[in-house]
Amino acid sequence: MYRYDEFDTTFVRQRVDQFRDQVNRRVSGELTEEQFRPLRLMNGLYLQLHAYMLRVAVPYGTLNAAQMRKLAFIADKYDKGYGHFTTRQNIQYNWPKLPDVPDILDHLADVEMHAIQTSGNCIRNVTADQWSGAAADEVEDPRPYAELMRQWSSLHPEFSFLPRKFKIAVTGAQADRAAIAYHDIGLRLKKNGSDEIGFEVLVGGGMGRTPMIAARIRDWLPKQELLAYLEAIMRVYNLHGRRDNKYKARIKILVHELGAEEFTSQVEEEYTRIDAPRVMPPAQELERIAAYFAPPAFDDLQDDSPKFMQHEEEDAAFAQWVERNVAAHKQRGYAIVNVSLKPVGGVPGDASSDQMRAVADLAEQLSLDEIRVTHEQNLVLPHVRKQDLYRLWQELKKHELADANIGLATDIIACPGLDYCALATARSIPISQDISNRLGDIARQREIGDLKIKISGCINACGHHHAGHIGILGLEKRGQEYYQITLGGSGDERASVGEIIGPGFSSETVTDAVETIVDTYVGLRQNGETFIEAYRRVGPDPFKEAVYAAH
Amino acid sequence: MAKKITGPQVLTANQLSDGMAVFLSNDNVWLTSIENAQFARSEEEATDLEACALPAIRSNDIVDPYLIEIEETEAGPVPVEFRERRRIAGPSVQVTFNTRPNGQLALAS
Ligand code: SF4
Predict the structure, then answer these.
(1) How far is CA A361 from CA A65, A69, A535, in A?
(2) Structural domain span for residue B84
(3) Which residues surround ligand 1 with Cβ inside 6 Å?
(4) pLDDT tens across A479-511, in order?
(5) Does domain A413-550 have CATH number 2.40.10.270?
(6) Which of A350, A353, A427 lies at the smallest CB-CB distance from B92?
(7) Tens digit of each residue's pLDDT (9 = 90 or more) over A432-469
(8) What is the pTM of this model?
(9) Is residue A354 within 8 Å of residue A399, measured between CB atoms?
(10) Judged by CB atoms within 8 Å, which residues 41-100 of B form the interface with A?
């Protein structure tokens, strides 16, 4: 994985020192809250409903064991023994105290982590496919490009005061596990007819109050031209983005208002004006970055492990876990393990410090010291020998990390909502817990099959409800929470925005409505159709009829 | 100018040090409980109450003060707005760990 060079180390340490000074000046009254607020936000520190919240960046979702142990240490020493993994592949601490934050940042810097670029109108932490560098279906590891973009965008003077925040996601596979079509810029590495690798470029996707699927503005961009082309996109945005209206300031609105064709031609025109060699990094720099992401020292193994196959045959619970949580690896004899942070009735994405330490130990022993955070709020051990899977599963079970529910009804995304978030209009977590308890029987979940339920506690859509097969948006009316349901959203390579099915539901009835929707699907599906396939065939009507007849 | 109000108000803020919600009490002390909060019942009183935040802002004890409307009940003052009720109640989920929350929805912090 990427290691800081001298510049990175100095820069991060300096930022910690500066922030320590700023906190001291705030506490002593030298800085007012108005002066301090933008400074703390630049360092990932928010003031939420009940406490401060510190958002720590996990660049492209990649961590090693030492970093995860440090996160656990911080959770114990400065918080309440847990952390919350988010849909941005970050971790949030919900209870830090202001005077402690500089120390927390210092500890993070010890393991080359920080909380910079997790807030503000800048290019945020770049996200990536959580299986990068491991997935069998990947044409190339996208993380060196994510790192390149991180370096290019960090503190870039032209991009530090954009009209709004800006999010980039990148994948190296056809199957989209990074929801690239829902980002300001989505990038997919792919091969052309001559077997060369380049980028497909999508622009203008987003969630929030105006959900949009990104438009493809380039089918093929030679990969060495990436930064120059991105600069052209950013310039068009910087020039024409709506700074006058916060709700219209994201690039998706610009793409929408100009039309994808006009936007594309403006970018292409700008691109001809860019001095590409100036923007493009020297080849040695690219190689230097890529070297950090070189494949780890895999053992030369047979693809099949007899030991693994025997356990799979003899232990049905293990076989079920393998079926749902284990994915194909590009290296013979290895597998990708998805570690669920969605115990039935639990809080999506929360991990205790004990669990973090357990995952760190297991990563060190069994996954070549690598861990990933997924935008679906789970963890991944990306490089596990198949022969070690049974042992790993048994260890995960001891820490309640072996739920075999990846991609099933209880693998719910939920944002912090009104249990923590100052912007929330309703709670998300208790709703997700209620649904999880209702649909939690594993046989029933397996019978229902692939289903993505996503819940946001306000229109900002951090819980990605627009991309949920079943999306739930928490709102407030006359002093009560109510929940709007959307159906048919998807964040994968066939991205779509969910449609509202009708009037909302109270917190007491929303789980019933979800269950009715699920039962309706089970009743009408044909030939093993998944929920989303069935929805795309029949549309919303059967679901609406069932839900509103019953409630 | 006097602030338009539609019911009794109390003054709330967040503590600078840890962000906790606090309420100005009858004794002019900032407390984490709303129980003994000072009321403003008229627009003039509301303006006066808001001004009471100044010393604590100046001494860097609180940030972001604002008035909230409450209802007087037998159990004490209850905010009218749902958000404020949740802010007082704290998270409806378990917030100290090391055993997994299995469907426990109503543990206080
Ligand atoms: S969707 Fe709203 S409630 Fe949920 S985390 Fe985002 S801002 Fe907060």
Answers:
(1) 7, 9, 42
(2) 9-98
(3) A 415-417, 421, 423-424, 456-458, 460-463
(4) 899 999 999 999 999 999 999 999 999 999 999
(5) no
(6) A427
(7) 999 999 999 999 999 999 999 999 999 999 999 999 99
(8) 0.94
(9) yes
(10) 57-60, 63-64, 80-83, 86-87, 90-98, 100
